[in-house]
Amino acid sequence: TAARVSGAGRLGSRFSEVVLGFRDLPKEKACDWIAGYLPAFIHDLQLDLTKPSRNSHRKILDYGCGKGAVASYLVQFAGVKYVLGCDIDERCLQEARQRTTLLQKSLAFELLSREGECNLPSSTFDGAMCNFLISVLCNKAQQLRILHRIKAALTPGAPFVMLVNNPASVGTKFASIQVGEQGATYEPGELVHVQMFDMDTREKYFESRDRWWPVEHYVELFVEAGFVEVRAETRTVSLQQHSDLMCSIDLDPTRFQVESSVAPVLAVRGINPK
C-alpha cells in the first residue's frame, strides 16, 4: 500500500470552532490544543467534538498514556465510551487512577513491561493512539512488536495514530519544548536531549531523552506492521484561529510564533485493514 508523506499544513478551522471545555481546563491542556498535540490525534481518530454524543460508542486504546490526562479528556469532553490507557511508569498510572476515580467505569489503566508491551484484548478497540512512545525505543524490532500488538487489538477498519516530535524541527525551541541541540544533526536511533519549559515562567522544568528517527522510518513501521492508507503529516499552528482561546486563558499569542511556521509534531496515521 502506498504511503503518503505531506508537509506542514495548517490545522483545519473546525479545531478552532471547538474551544469546548478548555476554558475550564488547566492552561497546560489549552496550550497542548493550540500547539497541535490534541487536534492531531482527535482528527485522525475521527472523533466529532462538535457533537460528542456521536462518540458514545467508541472504545479507544491510549498506548503510552502517562498520567492519563488525554484519556480522561476523551471521556469527559469528547464523549468516548471507554479508554484503556497503558504506560511503562507505575507511578504515572497510580496518579492517573487517583485523578480519574469518578470515571472508573469509562477508564482503565494497565502497566507495560520494560519493553513497552502488555497483553491486550484482540479486535476490541475502534481507535488507538500512541503518543511520544515509539520514538524512545532503541530498535526497529521492538517498535514493530508494539505496532503488531496494537493492530491486533483494533477492530477492522479502525484508525491508529502515532504522534512523535517532528524530526525536521530538531533543535528548534518551541513554547513548551526543545528536542535536540540547535544546529546538530543526528543519525537514526541516536539519543537526543529533550527540554520542557513552563508556559508561564518560560523556565525549564523537566529534562528527558528521546531518539531521532526520520519520517520514512515511521512510515515503514506502519506499512510493515500491516496498516493501510498510511500517511505522515506535519501541521503548523494558526494563531488567528486560536486567538479567542488564547485570550480566554490570558496567553500571549507571540509565545506560539515559532509553531506558526515550524511544525512541532509529526502525526503518522494508518488503518487496520477490513
Can you give keywords for this protein?
alpha/beta, 8-stranded mixed beta sheet, 3-stranded antiparallel beta sheet, 8 helices, 274 residues, 26% strand
Kindly describe this structure:
The protein is of the alpha/beta class and 274 residues long. Helix content is 26%, strand content 26%. The chain contains eight helices and eleven strands. It has helices at residues 13-17, 27-35, 37-44, 69-76, 90-99, 140-153, 215-225, 243-248; strands spanning 4-10, 59-63, 82-87, 107-111, 128-131, 159-165, 177-179, 190-197, 204-212, 228-236, 265-271. The strands form two sheets. Strands 1-10-11-6-5-2-3-4 form an eight-stranded mixed beta sheet, with helices on both faces. Helix 6 packs across helix 7. The longest helix is centred in the middle third of the chain and has 14 residues, at 140-153. The protein is globular. The protein starts with a strand and ends with a strand.
Mean pLDDT: 83
Low-confidence stretches: 7-24
Could you tell me the radius of gyration in angstroms?
18 Å
The coarse silhouette is globular
Strand order of the main beta sheet, please?
1-10-11-6-5-2-3-4
Structural class: alpha/beta
Number of separate helices: 8
Helix content: 25-40%
Our estimate of the beta-strand percent is 25-35%
What is the CA–CA distance across the termini? 14 Å
Largest sheet: 8 strands, mixed
Q: What's the count of strands?
A: 11
Elements, N to C (H/E): EHHHEHEHEEHEEEEHEHE
